[in-house]
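Quick one:
INPUT:
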């Protein structure tokens, strides 16, 4: 083993530099693809390309552990070299923690169906925290360690340096050019990343809290649905967690004039309601969890609405119908359920959440709720249900998502 390690460490300096370079490129790819994946602008622009970017992010993320493992084989010698450089030792520890944490949390998110929503939710928080702490740190570290930037005396690996005794180093000013540029870079990173960081922070109770989303609700529909007593005082005790707002189009806005709800296709009775009529339809109340395929969850939601099976019974499903197709009011998004799935007791056309109207950012005024499946099946801004023959490939399924959207242990 010792002989093998000795052989491996030959050319140690060059290997360390090469390892540092490869690790830098891996972080760059992960940072760029990760920021694209969370960006609402890119979500709508890329379409199917987003799935390919997600695949690239996963592949590179899994591969990111290889430089870490290789470094650990060289770590003993490097650690000795940094014996009198505590800040550089600290930097090594920080980077190793970041890379290892990203890898573990990323694998859990990748395998979200196997680990379940609770573990995936925790992994997403860890992944996000490490990103918002680690990404600025690594960018700053990478820039300030470039050869043109750092002082030769600060280099870990120095190549043939010879001091000239005839020209001793001049006294250094209190505030050096290097410190000034470092400060400018730090301020630039803060200004650039702070808005995204604050938006992410808001998802834990700030801008994405239900109270704020209700204030921002742009739908203008009258009358407001009167909640059932079990909904007004949420029998689930109130939702635990905060929703993250993801869309593939601009969020539509509805009024009494432009909103209607229709059930048609392979049915005996084509049904259509105006808003004034729809709020009079008898509703029921249920408590269920809400799981997003990206890893986050909101627990104990009290939804009030109409069971899908009751609406389909009223319409009269014809024998030739095989699939229930749902249309979003954004004019783009669609998805489907089988007749068997649509017959589940907890599949609901929801109108209220915890006794309040569903805000526009969360798919209101009416959205589908399929608790046992990931949320891309729970179509937002629902305005039409069509019974069709054969199958239909939904928006995200067409772009690579699995048609098997069942949540583990549901």
């Amino acid at each position: 083993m010792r002989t093998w390690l000795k052989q491996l460490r030959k050319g140690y300096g060059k290997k360390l530099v090469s390892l540092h370079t490869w690790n830098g490129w891996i972080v760059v790819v992960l940072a760029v693809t990760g920021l694209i994946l969370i960006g609402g602008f890119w979500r709508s622009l890329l379409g199917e390309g987003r799935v390919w970017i997600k695949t690239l992010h996963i592949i590179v993320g899994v591969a990111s552990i290889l430089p870490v493992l290789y470094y650990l084989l060289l770590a003993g010698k490097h650690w000795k070299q940094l014996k009198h450089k505590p800040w550089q030792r600290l930097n090594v520890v920080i980077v190793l923690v970041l890379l290892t944490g990203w890898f573990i949390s990323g694998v859990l998110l990748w395998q979200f169906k196997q680990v379940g929503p609770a573990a995936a939710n925790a992994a997403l928080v860890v992944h996000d925290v490490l990103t918002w702490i680690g990404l600025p740190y690594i960018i700053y570290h990478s820039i300030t360690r470039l050869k043109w930037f750092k002082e030769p005396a600060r280099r870990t690996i120095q190549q043939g340096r010879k001091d000239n005794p005839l020209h001793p180093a001049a006294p250094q000013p209190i505030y050096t050019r290097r410190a000034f540029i470092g400060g400018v870079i730090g301020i630039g990173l803060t200004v650039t990343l702070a808005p995204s960081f604050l938006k992410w922070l808001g998802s834990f109770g700030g801008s994405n809290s239900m109270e704020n989303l209700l204030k921002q609700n742009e739908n203008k529909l009258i009358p407001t649905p009167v909640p059932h007593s079990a909904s007004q005082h949420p029998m689930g005790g109130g939702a635990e967690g905060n929703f993250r707002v993801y869309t593939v189009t601009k969020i539509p806005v509805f009024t009494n004039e432009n909103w209607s709800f229709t059930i048609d296709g392979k049915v005996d009775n084509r049904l259509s309601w105006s808003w004034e009529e729809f709020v009079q339809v008898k509703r029921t109340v249920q408590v269920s969890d809400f799981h997003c395929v990206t890893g986050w969850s909101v627990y104990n939601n009290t939804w009030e609405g109409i069971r899908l099976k009751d609406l389909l019974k009223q319409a009269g499903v014809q024998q030739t119908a095989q699939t229930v197709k749902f249309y979003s009011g954004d004019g783009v998004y669609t998805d489907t359920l089988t007749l068997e799935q649509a017959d589940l007791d907890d599949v609901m056309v929801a109108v209220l959440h915890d006794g309040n109207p569903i805000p526009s950012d969360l798919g209101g005024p009416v959205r589908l709720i399929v608790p046992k499946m990931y949320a891309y099946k729970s179509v937002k801004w629902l305005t039409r249900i069509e019974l069709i023959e054969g199958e239909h490939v939904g928006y995200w399924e067409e772009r690579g998502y699995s048609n098997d959207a069942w949540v583990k242990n549901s």
